[in-house]
Amino acid sequence: MSNSNKYGKTFNCSVLDYNKLRTFLRYAFLYGCYTKDDFVERLNYSESLVDKDYKRLLSILGAKHFKKKTPKQTRFRMNYNYYQNTENYLVKSYYAKSSTKLQISLYFLILQILKREMDVNEINGKIPTLSDDFNIKTLTRQLDKMAQWDLIEKVQHKRNGKLYYRPKKDFFAALTDDELGQLKTAVEFFCNIEFPSIPGYYLSNTIEKYMKYYREKSASSKNIFLYRFKNFHTVLEEDIAWKLLWCINNSIEIKLQYFFKNGIGHKVIMPRRLVIDIYYGRWYLIGSTDMHPINIYRLDKIIDFEILKSSCVTPCSMEELDNCFRHSWCIGTPQKSDSPSTIRIRFSVSANEDLTFLLNKVKREGKWGTITDINKKSFIYTIKINDAKEIKPWIRSFGHYAEVIESTLCDLREELHDEWGEMLESYGIIS
Amino acid sequence: MMNGVKCLKAMELFLEGKNKNYALMLELINWLYFGSKKSLSRSEISDMVERYGISAEFNLSQSLMNENELYNLYLLDKNIDGDYSLHIESSVPIQPYKIEKQWLKHILKNPKLKLFLEDVTIAKLEALLADYDNIVSEDALTINRPCIQLQQVEEGLSRNFKLLVKAILENKGIEYSYTTRSNELLQNCRGIPYKIEYSMKEDCFYLISYSLEDKRPIKSLLSGFKDIKLMNLEVEYNISPEEIQKSIDAKKAAKPILLRIKDVNNTLERALFQFSCFERELDYIEESDAYLLSIFYYEFEREEVISRIFSLGKHAIVVEPEDIKAEIIKRLQQLKEKYSSIP
Lengths: 431, 343
Fold this sequence. Notes:
The structure holds 2 protein chains of 2 kinds. Chain A is an alpha+beta fold. Chain A folds into 5 domains: 19-95; 101-167, Winged helix-like DNA-binding domain superfamily/Winged helix DNA-binding domain (Arc Repressor Mutant, subunit A); 177-230; 234-325, SH3 type barrels, CATH 2.30.30.100; 341-426, 2-Layer Sandwich (Alpha-Beta Plaits). Chain A contains 13 helices and 14 strands. Chain A has helices spanning 19-31, 36-41, 47-61, 101-113, 120-126, 136-148, 177-193, 198-214, 238-249, 318-325, 356-365, 388-397, 412-426; strands at 66-67, 77-78, 152-156, 163-167, 225-228, 254-260, 263-277, 282-288, 295-298, 302-307, 341-348, 370-372, 378-385, 402-407. A 5-stranded antiparallel sheet of chain A has the order 9-8-7-6-10. Chain A has a 4-stranded antiparallel sheet with strand order 12-13-11-14. The longest helix of chain A has 17 residues, at 177-193. The model of chain A is unreliable at 1-11 (pLDDT under 50). Helices cover 35% and strands 22% of the residues of chain B. Chain B has helices spanning 4-10, 20-34, 42-51, 60-64, 98-107, 119-128, 155-169, 241-249, 267-274, 302-312, 322-340, and strands spanning 76-78, 84-86, 141-144, 173-179, 185-199, 204-211, 216-221, 225-231, 257-261, 279-285, 290-296, 316-320. Chain B has a 5-stranded antiparallel sheet with strand order 7-6-5-4-8. In chain B, strands 10-11-9-12 form a 4-stranded antiparallel sheet. Chain B has a two-stranded antiparallel ribbon with strand order 1-2. In chain B, strand 10 and strand 11 (290-296) form a beta hairpin. The N and C termini of chain B lie far apart (62 Å). Chains A and B meet through helix 1, helix 4, helix 7, helix 8 and strand 5 of A and helix 1, helix 2, helix 4, helix 5 and helix 6 of B.
């Protein structure tokens, strides 16, 4: 048995469940400071699992994306260099789902055989002898799966109720070669700036292969675009995000396995909406529970979830949801009272600076806030917001250009005054 | 009611049909079918497997050659001459999966699509996707972007965009006029377009090009360009992308900014998330129970980095370099003064 595949029926070091990849990747890409001991002691990994996951990812992504740091122990750390390489290599982790030998054989044999409408028996007649575990039920399962993926069609004849399968029409047939080339460029661009993005990467590959074999025209491999301030790690949660979208669209109740503040726990929820915060690259799930209509969960803290057949939770309405988040900077909900707080900020520049850049920046980033009292060196920005804590990082990012004048429901000016003082002290300056 | 689990399987993003093995099989079958050479030798099969980065320990070559009993694929037959040909003489059609079509339907709504496609092409795609569900509706997904988004593409921007894409694809230079942010009109400019940069933070496009007048790389807002004409690059003007890349690399700050972060109030996590789009390294300092984040940046992004450091608040302090530290202290003193007086 020296040639036998030691992983049994599956090929290479791929995995059945994406959850097995995303946690390790998140720690390696975002943090990159943890050693094997840290994974074991702080992150609840077993020693063997650390080695296995690392070896697996080296094979899936390639060694060049990992860097090690000595002297003491290897830290699992990943590379990022914006101008050198725009490719989001984390996407490659999605090309690593395991499959059995039978699945691969049937996938390609079916696509090669199915050139016209056939029933399962006729298809079976053209399949070569495969393994002992192959039978007509296995074939039907594979055909149905490929029909669900929209690679082939499954039809039921009205006359006799019999089921047939037939090939799909060429999706790209209506597009000229030029249109196809333009579509490929468009898809390459949008899969880098739209969310979710993984299906876009898949589509880009599909168009490239289609052009190569069915138009005898190679798509340009020249990399035209750079994407500044793009977060690679958002793709790590897309597997869960895409499934949750389906649950939301079909009003399916789920049981979450989640990292709560006090440990791992379970919660039954009705998912209502996903939110992605582009600046930080964080995904959130808003869902209803039997205790509260609106709850917020981070997707990177969802370990897994299962679909429930029951329906016990009364979901909040879309109107409730829209009202709750109307004045939300990201996902902040109304605080002390149900009214949002009003914050007024003076933005100003020094005597030798031009106001234009600051005004344009606040107009671009200030969401529904209003700008008034514009003069040569300053203007006032006013916004109603659910949770003032959410806007604080944005205000801070302006540094000395922004001064909170007043705020209702909280004393933001006082808070920031204290913070600036404490920051100065941290730099050794007594204020 | 539909079987929830079955439908969820169909909605999965993580698909075996997208793994490396499948990509290899597709190439192998279609190459054999469409190519002039209708067979592959043993070594050619092994080379292909290696090119796809599939480790030899998984015996995929043997499975392809039906020499890995229990795991044979039976997609190829062995010929008399020892080479391998297709078992079924047929190509593999290439179809987008349902999730790819659903995604394409989602991006058809984006106004920026008109930068890439003509209206007639968009109409064709809308017709092709008419029967597919709108999976990513605004009710189901809120995309919280850092700035307001372009709602309509102007004719001028669209024209500039397409010309510059063409120039990059065809390795052409450009002649143009340019209106700066301060409304100054620069005429008779010439350059070599390198890349179009899209800023996620500003929702706008810049052209990174090599200025033939200034002999250095420059970054210009696409909306500022006028009267772009493509030109053939003469030998003496033919600067390679690698040389342009080198000039950009020369702008990298000599030393990274070192930020000491206390993991209080989620400061560490916020720092890592918002600096994930910068080259960085994180180390844990046990003695002070703090983290040290090194941020590698380009000089022209200095303000952006300082702005992000400020946003982190009091638990993120610059340790080095001295000039950045001094700049932050200066701004903090200005802030303290502002906040100490009556607003």
